[in-house]
Every structure is written in C-alpha cells, then in structure tokens.
Amino acid sequence: MDDLQFGTRDKxxxxxxxxxxxxxxxxxGKWGQMKHFVIDYFWPWNLFHMAVTLAYWGLLIxxxxxxxxxxxxxxxxxxxxxxxxxxxxxxxxxxLFYYVKRKQGTRFKxxxxxxxxxxxxxxxxxxxxxxxxxxxxxxxxxxxxxxQVLFLWCxxxxxxxxxxxxxxxxxxxxxxxxxxxPAIHEVHFxxxxxxxxxxxxYKWIHSVHHNSINPSPWSSMSMHWVEATAFxxxxxxxxLIPSNPIxxxxxxxxxxxxxxxxxxxxxxxxxxxxGAKTLDSHAYAHxxxxxxxxxxxxxxxxxxxxxxxxxxxxGSKAADEQMKARFRAxxxxxxxxxxxxxxxA
Length: 345
Ligand SMILES: [Zn+2]
Ligand SMILES: [Zn+2]
Fold this sequence. Notes:
A two-stranded antiparallel ribbon has the order 1-2. A two-stranded antiparallel ribbon has the order 3-4. By secondary structure, the protein is mainly alpha-helical. It is built from 11 helices and 4 strands. Helix content is 52%, strand content 3%.
C-alpha cells in the first residue's frame, strides 16, 4: 500500500500522517463522525481486550476462585505464566513480523530507524530491545500479577467499598461501566503520567520508560517498578466504584495488553501481502509524546485532558508552534526564577 496517499515522508525518511489527530467527536459536536468513532471504539482493540478478559475469567479464574482467597504461590505463578505468555504472543507477534522480519519495511513507520540499529549506553546491555524486554517480563509483568492477586483476594473475601454487584441485578449499570472503562483508563493514566513527568519523579522513575525515544512493542511495559505499580493499580478503582470482577479485569487487561497501542511505531499494520487489509494502530498520539516528552500525557482524547490543560499535540504544524511557544515560556519563567534566586553581587 502506498503510504504517501495518507501522509508525507521527510528527508530523514520519517513518515507523518496528513490528517491531524482528533479528540472524541462528541466533545466538539461533530456528530457526523460518530458512526466511525463508535466502530473504532469497539473494533478491534476493545473487543480483543474483552475476549481476552472473558477467557481469563471463564477458563482460569472463576473455576479456581477458592484458590485466590489466601495468597497461593502456585496460583500466583500460574497467573504470571498466563500474563507473560499472553504478552509474549501479542507484543511478540508485532515485534516479529514488523520489527524483525520487517514485512512492511518502513511503510507507515513514524521513525525510519529501527531500535536495533541504535545501540545506546542508556540501555541494559546497550540494547533497547533486550532492556525493554527484560524490564517488561521481570519488573512490570510480575507487578501486574501481584496487583491481580491482591484484587482477586479482595474479591474472593468480599472486600469492596460498597459491595460487589452481579450481572442479573445490575446489568444496566455494569454495561455502562464497561463502556466507561477506556475513559477511566485515560483519566487514570493522564494523572499518574503527568505526575511522574514532574521533577524529581521524572529523573527517578519515568526516565526509564523515556529512554526509548523511538518506541517499539517491547517498550510498552518497559517501566521503573514505581511506574509499573501506579500503571497497573488502575484496576483498584473498581474496589471503590460499584463494580464486578469481569469489568475490573477488563480494566486491567485493556491497560496491560493495550499498552502496546502507543508503542507500535507504525500508523497502520498491513495484514496481507498487498496491504489491502490494514489495522489502525492508534499509536500516533503517544508516539508524539515519546518524541516531544511534554505533550499528550493521556490518550487519543476520549477524555481530552490534554486539550483542556493545553498539552494536546495533534501532529499539525500549528500544534508544533504552540508547543514551541509553551516550551519557550517555560524556559523564560525558569530563567526569571533563577535570576531572582541568585541576585547579582
Ligand atoms: Zn510510552
Ligand atoms: Zn511520559
């Protein structure tokens, strides 16, 4: 497929989409775009996360609920193996086809370079791939599993601020809550993410994730343990919101499996040889975050906190100018502050 029908490529070979990013159309009264938005909302990513959640619940968790009433090492290890295996297959297949075999070359690729071409001292063993892989499987996924075990312990022991709901009595609210899961994710992620961008938290914690300026699938969960804890703790909102374990686990899975979306590095993945069938990655907003750091703390604007707080970057030239003006103003402010703190002798 000709990616230049959809975007432009600069001298360095970096590709950018023609169309700027749009926040969810209902915020701007663009009702004509709602049909497209609703289809995109479900298909394919959220339906995938729901299918994975139902498989976790039906095949693994519900038949063995009693095992989660106390801390059980064997079941914790089983959950870890399932989580790690699921991520290995999902992230790994994008990595294998698009980064190792490079089946579509650099078509639709934002950054023309592949991480393996850039060894750097900031990474363990000088390799972004190895560093990101090890941090995911030995830091972030174990933490995800422990939070999952804590959550299941709360559920099986009846711990909830207002009591657990079941689908027979509360199906309408639970259906609404299921639809709100991506919105809860965006608000939670924006808040923790903005927080760890402030110093000294950035230096201590979040810089680990940002070492990958040119992210790839393994970068998705490459985090300092404090960030991984805050990231996966999102499910714990369901101990306060009237909820049900299936909705809560959907929240957890869309966070964990969904982390790949921002880090795919390609606008579209070609699914067949000719590229007639493609999959939209929804990666651009977070790609811009990795490129410019202080923009797009949230997601794609389902709850457009970035727009409201002035940190939204839609990929356009105007947004670029706005961002630069904001950075300049920040620098000036810092300079003025420093000048005040150190008066001339
Ligand atoms: Zn990221
Ligand atoms: Zn960040």
